[in-house]
Specification:
Blueprint: H1 3-15, H2 19-32, H3 37-50, H4 53-59, H5 68-77, H6 81-87, H7 100-117, H8 130-133, H9 144-176
Helix pairs in contact: 1-2, 2-3, 3-4, 4-5, 6-7
Length: about 180
Amino acid sequence: MTLTRTLARADADLAAGRIPVARQRLRGLVVSFPAELAPRRRLAEVYRRYGDAAEAGRWAYLEEDRDETETAAFEARYRDPVLRMRALAWAGPESLAGSAVAAERLATVRAACSDAVGRPVEWGAVPRIWHERHGEGGQAAEGPLLRFMENAGCLLATCLMVGIWLAGLISLIDLFGLFG
């Protein structure tokens, strides 16, 4: 389905009061057409109807006439530059943005993310698990203790599942009087 047709369907959903359906259509458009600003603008409108200023600010972040209160709410929710960069769901270079203002804002977010990570970051390669790799204040949270704790947690979960399975099996054997 084309961008124009899907936007028209989302508008029809909004007019009919099917806001969750419209929101899903628009989210799909943002994923399929990340460089298009129209789905982002309409998605911001949907979140305004919900009263979610942070999400409205997220999707209106690239707009020239964005609401600064919504922008502040978005930036407060996504304080970490890496999380903020991922939240914008942009793909490709800033030059694909529909305006110079949007391109400048994208470049600013990417620069902040690069500074936080300590290396250049591109929009297609935003680090996925920032907080797993970094603890408080950007301190590295890697090492043998972390790996041990992860492995011990997996082993504990596996033992728990096997124990539950065995308890169920024993209950079935007792219920049907097998072996005795």
